[in-house]
Structures are given as structure tokens and as C-alpha cells.
Amino acid sequence: MTTSSIDFPSSAPTALAVQRAYLERHGVAPTVLARAPGRVNLIGEHTDYNDGFVLPLAIDRDTWVAAGPRDDGQVDALALDEQQAEDRFALSATPPHFPGGGWRDHVRGTLAQLVEELPSLSGMNLVIAGDVPMGAGLSSSASLALALLRAAQRLGGDATLDGKRLARLAQQAENRFVGCQCGIMDQLASAEGRAGHALLIDCRSLDTEPVPLPAGTALLIAHSRVRRGLVDSAYNERRRQCEAAAAGAGAKALRDVTLAQLEAAGLDDKTFRRGRHIVTENERVIAATRALREGDVRRLGELMKASHASMRDDFEITVPAVDQLAALLQDVIGEAGGARMTGGGFGGCVVALLPQALVPAAVKALEDGYRSPEGEPALVYLCEAGPGARAEAAAAATVAG
Ligand code: GLA
Predict the structure, then answer these.
(1) I need a surface site. Which of 35, 92, 185, 351 has the fewest CB within 10 A?
(2) Angstrom distances, CA of residue 238 to CA of 46, 183, 199, 300
(3) Which atom of ligand 1 lies nearest, measured to the CA of 180?
(4) The pLDDT of residue 229
(5) For 9-52, where are the E strands, in sequence order?
(6) How many C-beta atoms lie closer than 10 Å to residue 375's C-beta?
């Protein structure tokens, strides 16, 4: 078995599974293999669509796509993780929605955005699988979109679209086709993640700055098992409330508003609190980046704790199960790190940064102290910061013999 480079583990079981399934379905080997990671956000929640700052990292869990060309303008897609579900549609900039949406609409919407940029794109066969937990707030859909875009771009022979442009296309697919008014964080983290680093993103300029994670710290993600889709959640409502807060303060975006300006804007209590979360969260992201650079894990922990409280009290996007998870972890971690809800909210995961030595105690505290409203234990993922989305010629990565 050969891997083409160290940061492209194409020998991973999922990579082999998509290539084998492709061979079985189409009778030939795929020509392209692409991979894109999910993400976890260390701090900076709901700041991205306010032109603000976020500090996510790409995790070492990926969606994989094996791809090959077709000459009939059709897309044939097989999703191994969706009980081998299939889709077939004509590649175009305006594909129809699939009744019921789901993963098929992500594929259709994402490729539609790419066709607008690369009109010469022809049809393709796709086999998709991954190990990014779905519905957990770890951006499995952004990782699917980036893996598709990297695969299709490579098939189309394009080398001009960079990670930022691809991330924008993936975001547009969500906004225009899937119907979630999400920001750019998930897609850009998946596109430009760097192993061993978090990524400070300025969501206005799209400038990214890798920040090394401190040695000896572990990244623990605990899934509450409370699932809530972004589209039908209050996500879009939060976005409208933020726009109202910015407009009330006479600014284009909350990025440009200070706390004093917000206080003077005469907003109703709820709109004010929504705005206050964003304004203070932006400050926390900048402070957290500094703390991370200085290896000041204690300060980072304080900021994570404050971020969680702000999401709970001002932005009102946590749920009791997630508050409990964060509190359990924070109790074990004390001042040696921090824990907070991560992602869009209303369920999903808590992220904790803690000394490696405390991991067993943290896991034990969750086992003993946490049950979801349905009585299930938390799911725990120990992750590392991995590299961003890539595509390569499948031949170089295929198992020999
Ligand atoms: C979801 C969205 C992101 C971001 C987060 C909250 O993950 O897709 O754009 O807004 O929620 O920080």
C-alpha cells in the first residue's frame, strides 16, 4: 500500500472504501481522489456572518470522494454512508432540488456553483464516504462540499480556483440552494486548515493566519447527542437579529460596532443581547489568539468559559444538555484549559482544550455524569488539527495488488 504524501492518508479505510466501491460500480478505477476535513471551532461563534473573527481548526476526520469523468453530462453519485443511496442528475447551474433534500441537495447545489465558474465541466461519477460525524455540528456538509469541489475541479483540469474561492462557492451552495444563511467559517476551515494549527480567520477580508496549538494539550470533542439541523433551527433568525442590531447602531456589520455604541443605540433588550454576544465574542477571539500564541492555556480557558456563558445568556443558542456537558468538562479541567459549546448551537458538541494528562478523568466524568435527554451517553472524539482539502490523481493513491 502506498500513500502519496504524509498529509494525504489515502490508505485510510474510507479512502480505500470509496475507491473500491467506485471500481465495483463503474468497472474502472476512479481517476481522482479527494478529501476534505470537518472542523471544530475553538472560539468565535456566529461572528462569521457579522464580518467578524473566528478561530476554528480542521479536524483529522474527512469526507472522501472518488471521482471519474462521464461524457453524457450526467452526475452519478453514490453515498456509502447513506445506505448506499444514489443520485443521478444532469450537471447544470440550475439543477432541480431533490424532493426531501438531504445529501443529494448538497451535491447538486455545490456542483451547480462550480459549473457557473467552470462551464466546461462535464459529467462525472462520484462515490462518497466519510468519518466526520453527521449532524453533530462538526461541519460534515462543508467537508462534503469541499471534497466535491476539489474532486470536480481536478477532473475539470482547473488550477485557478484557490481555497478561498472554493470555500465561497461551498457557502453559496448552502445560502442559495440548501437554504441555510451560514457564514464562511466551516468552508474556509475545511479548505485551508493546517495540521497542528488553529486558523484565525478574518471573515471580512478572508485572510487566514495559522496559530500553532500548544504542545501537550489535547482536543476533546463531546457530542451531546442532541441533534438540530441548521436550516430549520433559529440560525437564520439569529442572523436577522444581528443585522437589526448592526443597523440600529448605524453600522454595516457588528464587526464595526463597539459595546458603547451598542449600548447607546436604544435597542430592545433581546436585540441588544444578540449584538453584545457578537461584539464581545469578536474581542474574545482576538484575545484567545494571543493566548494561544503565548501558550497561555489558562487565559484561553477563561475566554472559552466566557464564550459559553455569552452563548447561553445573550445569544441563547445552548440547550441544557450542552450546558451540562460544558460544566462537567470545565469542572475536571479547572484552570488548566477550557470547554465551550462549538458550532451553530441548539445541540451538537462541546469542545475542550485540556492537558493530555486530564483526558482520562474528563472521559470518566462524562461517562459517570452525562446522559442525553434520551438517556444516551455522550460521544467523545479525541481529535488533532489536520490539513485542509486536497485532491490527487487516484492512480497514485490506489492500492497496488
Ligand atoms: C454554523 C455555520 C457557520 C457559523 C457557525 C456558528 O457552523 O455554518 O457559518 O455561523 O454555525 O459560529
Answers:
(1) 92
(2) 8, 12, 24, 26
(3) 8
(4) 59
(5) 32-43
(6) 7
Task: Give the N- to C-terminal CA distance of the chain in Å, as an integer.
Answer: 8
**Which ligand 1 atom is at minimum distance from the Cα of 230?**
1
Give yes or no for residue 310 having a pLDDT over 70. Answer: yes
Count, residues in the chain:
401
Pairwise CA distance, residues 332 & 323, whole Å: 15
Handedness of CA 312, 318, 320, 322 (dihedral sign): negative
pLDDT score, position 10: 53
**How, if at all, do strands 217-223 and 349-355 pair?**
antiparallel
- Find the residues whose C-beta lies inside 6 A of ligand 1: 41, 45-46, 48-49, 182-183, 185-186, 343-344
- The confidence band for 395, taking pLDDT boundaries of 50, 70 and 90, is low
| pLDDT tens, residue by residue, 123-164 | 999 999 999 988 888 999 999 999 999 999 999 999 999 999
Helix, strand, coil shares of the chain as percentages rounded to 5?
Answer: 40, 20, 35
Residues 108-115 have a mean pLDDT of: 98
Of the candidates 36, 41, 50, the residue with the CA atom closest to the CA atom of residue 202: 50
**pLDDT surpasses 70 at 6:** no
Domains of the chain: 10-211+394-400 (3.30.230.10), 213-383 (3.30.70.890)
